[in-house]
Amino acid sequence: MDLSGYRITISNVKDCPCFQAEDQFACSGNAVVVAADTHFCMDFAESLIFGLGNIAKSKAVAMEFKCVRGSSGCKGQVAYRIEKIDEQPATNGDASADPNVGAVTRLLLNLPMFKSFDQRSIDRLLSYFHFEHIHDLGFKSYRKGNVIIQQGQPGTHLYIIVAGRVEVVDEDDNTITFLSSGEVFGEMSLISGNPVSATIKADIPTTVFRLDSKDFNSVLPKFPELHTYFARLLTQRLARSNRERNQDLTSGMAGKLSEMPPDEVLQTLNITQKTGVLEFSLADGPAKVFFNDGEMVHAEYGKWSGIEAVAAVVQNQTGKFNFTPKLPPEASDKKPLGNFMGILMNSLKALDEQMSEDEI
């Protein structure tokens, strides 16, 4: 339906965290155009879809509507008016001028994940998706206490918090941390192919932007900005979640891969800049990865050595590991195998491809 020429005005507000009286939004084409810093709650969006549909069908000049408590659990109440006004038609033929794309572009550019993107990069990113309106991109709201992802389940989406806050909890329901607007979760499972490592639930009414794994895996290799962002994010997350465990590394570390996958073990030693030998007991035999100040300088596993050995080790999900904080003299002068995060992400990509082939 063509909504060009309609204007939405907030007329009355009670306990609403998003809007104030006299806030206004314009309509163009089949979209609502809002400012980049607008907190556009999904309850209001659902009410608005109903209201715009009614006024378009009736061809009325103006109609009044109310948004009350909805699926997200928000207790706010909003009254608003939709009215027909005169509007100059847009003359810009650029695809980026489409109000649907424009609204999404402004939202994405305001998120930390896309801060390094310019207009051209965002336009190219959105060209990989086909959508009629903003809801097709996977915006979803949760009530307080709703579980968004469950520990142990396979990862299916990347989540970006648009509004609200989530709580990250362990298997005993102990709080690990909180994540708020603009932060990302679910990425570790998509990159590594491992099950979700923690349960995440809405701490307050929360709206997220979801990108499914297929779309995530298709766009990640095409945008170096995203590759850099997630490499930095993985490092920060592991540094935060493993801080207590890292304090015990001076006397060595041992464990099971079922509890701490190979990629997490490797990143832990890299983050803490450890020197020594990481030994694995795997189904196909022993493996060793040598670290010097957190950098991998040598690796051996069966017929493989170097980077190929690291990639082969990462593909194991069962077995045991043991780190000894002492490097043999013959390995102390070896140079790093290469950029640590680059080697690891390529290894995880190979693991993901192998898992996909096994599913066929």
Total of helices: 10
In helices, the fraction of residues equals 25-40%
Q: H/E order of the elements?
A: EEEHEEHHEEEEEEHEEHHHEHEEEEHEH
In round numbers, the mean pLDDT is 77
Strand order of the largest sheet: 14-19-15-16-17-18
What count of structural domains?
3
> What does the main sheet amount to?
6 strands, antiparallel
Radius of gyration: 25 Å
Approximate shape: elongated
Beta strand count: 19
Distance between the termini: 42 Å
The chain-level structural class is: alpha+beta
Strand content: 25-35%
Low-confidence stretches: 86-97, 130-135
Structure, explained:
- With 360 residues, this protein is of the alpha+beta class.
- The chain has 3 domains: 1-89; 134-241, Jelly Rolls (Sandwich); 243-359, no CATH class.
- 30% of the residues lie in helices and 28% in strands.
- It has 10 helices and 19 strands.
- The chain has helices at residues 42-58, 99-109, 119-126, 187-192, 213-219, 224-241, 243-246, 262-271, 307-314, 340-359; strands at 6-14, 24-28, 31-33, 62-67, 77-84, 139-142, 147-149, 157-163, 165-169, 175-180, 184-185, 199-202, 206-212, 253-256, 276-282, 285-292, 295-301, 304-305, 320-324.
- The strands form 4 sheets. Strands 14-19-15-16-17-18 form a 6-stranded antiparallel β-sheet.
- α2 crosses α3 and α8 packs antiparallel against α10.
- The longest helix has 20 residues, at 340-359.
- The radius of gyration is 25 Å and the shape is elongated.
- The chain starts with 5 loop residues before the first strand and ends with a helix.
- The relative contact order is 0.09.
